[in-house]
Amino acid sequence: MPYGYNGFLEANPDIARMLQNDTSLGNICTPAELQRVNVSSYQIPLLCGASEITFPLHPVSVEDFMHVMLYMVVNGLSEYTIHYNISCSKSDIDNLMGTCMRAFDFANTKYVHYLSCINRLETNVQMQMLSSVFGSKITGFSLTLKFMESYAGAFSENLHMLKLVPYVLNQLNSRGKFSQNNYENARVLYNWLCLHCEYDFSNNPRRFGGFSALLYGKAVCEGFTCLYNALCSGLGISIMGMSGQSRNVHSGKMENHIWSWANINGRSCYIDSTWGSPNF
């Protein structure tokens, strides 16, 4: 079995023995168990990286808009309207919308655990005009952001997955799987995911989400990374998604791929949880 921990095939035999000997990990929070958990009263957790979501009244920067999108997710909003009570030009609005779209592109990868299976952002502008003998000018406008799902129900399913993160972490902790060392805790979560989820080759769009990885034990790279990042974030580990290309070990072709980068105990780690799948 390949181990993609820290971005390479880890040759340390101790890791293989640890995973083989601690098969009890695979019995914790099985898909069947998680499907029975009622999350109706659970809150969407503020995971690491979103614990303090603030943005100005009039968002203008990439970071501002990324925080708006995080705010939308943790409040269960697939649509949100921002009101700008300022005078501006049409080109100002066009530039702002361009900034908003760049923010979505960054957030969609960096915060994959929050925006899994949201494949695009739809924007709509309503302008307030003031007419006079000298012409018309824009005195304000509203900008509506709307998450567009890659399949029906994707947004609500990802919220369901996020609500289960504290449950999974509590179950692992109650079985004595965590320590004071977050590097080892990240490895425990990696090993748990290796045993919990397998790579899916069916081209089912739901396999791109952390929901499928958690509740059905089947996913592709985005689903693996989504769930792994959510779990690590729940432990306070600073982690983000990274996208690019990697070589498919079956076809030999370069393909789009997503994996994780984390800062653990001051150490930079590239972690590819997909490579830990027994059948990948």
Helix-strand topology string: HHHEHHEEHHEHEHEEE
Helix proportion range: 25-40%
Report, as a whole number of angstroms, the end-to-end distance.
9 Å
Main β-sheet description: 3 strands, antiparallel
Structural class: alpha+beta
- Uncertain spans, ≥5 residues at pLDDT below 50? 1-20
| Total E-strand runs | 8
Give average pLDDT, whole number: 87
The coarse silhouette is elongated
Backbone CA Rg: 21 Å
Total number of helices: 9
**Arrangement of strands in the largest sheet:** 1-3-2
- Strand residue percentage: 15-25%
In short:
The protein has 280 residues and is of the alpha+beta class.
How would you describe this protein?
By secondary structure, the protein is an alpha+beta fold. The strands form 3 sheets. A 3-stranded antiparallel beta sheet has the order 1-3-2, covered by helices on one side. A 3-stranded antiparallel beta sheet has the order 6-7-8, covered by helices on one side. The chain has a two-stranded parallel sheet with strand order 4-5. The relative contact order is 0.16. It starts with 12 loop residues before the first helix and ends in a 9-residue tail after the last strand. The protein contains 9 helices and 8 strands.
Write the layout of secondary structure elements.
Blueprint: H1 13-21, H2 31-35, H3 62-74, E1 79-84, H4 90-110, H5 112-115, E2 118-132, E3 135-149, H6 154-174, H7 182-196, E4 198-199, H8 210-215, E5 218-219, H9 221-234, E6 238-247, E7 254-264, E8 267-271
Parallel strand pairs: 4-5
Antiparallel strand pairs: 1-3, 2-3, 6-7, 7-8
Main attributes of the structure:
disordered N terminus, single chain, 9 helices, elongated, 280 residues, 3-stranded antiparallel beta sheet, alpha+beta, 8 strands, 24% strand
